[in-house]
Give the backbone structure.
Amino acid sequence: MTANARIIICDDDDLVRAMLVDFLADEGYEVSGAANGAELRAVLPRLRPDLVICDLKMPGEDGLSLTRWMHGEGHCAVLMLTAMGTTTDRVVGLEMGADDYLTKPFELPELRARVKAILRRSMTAPEGPAAKAPARVQIGRCVLDTEMKALFDQAGERVALTAMEYDLLRTFITHPRRPLNRDQLLELAHHKKWDPYDRSVDNRIARLRKKVERDPAKPATIKTVHGEGYMFVPE
């Protein structure tokens, strides 16, 4: 399924962009290029990609702003390319909605592996118990549509979700009233090896609470079970 995915490479370096377009096209993907943020904004609604590989530092609009826009619109998964590999850069990129990041310079086999992993998470329904999730589930003040892989608010408006946020919600609804620790959540959501920072789970759950809880300061849907982890409590 992921072999037919549509990918856009957004990088102002012509040589890098051409290299990545050719490499991923040879891998069987449908690939297009954008030289800057303006070009990406112009082609993205028309191409409707499954993944955008976006450089962090570009003239004009940078990758962080573009990632925030794509995340807010719920367009697609995002792999951010950055020449800066500090933890702060990584956290900021993930907070803006990126699904993963890769530090320049990188080896093409590593890029291939990251692309496959992101597309597998965002395009393939999880196996096992998660496949039995009901089509629509009330989660706090929102409704999760597992067929569309989308979250909707009380007004029926779509709420933006990253791939991992969706996988976490699906894990919760298929394991209701069961406390799950960080390792269990990553394992059940098929993200065990994706992010070694435990706090990444906490950060995403905090963001999910802001989206679904009626009172995020007093979470009643995704509860904290002290000493055990988090638990989804259906209404």
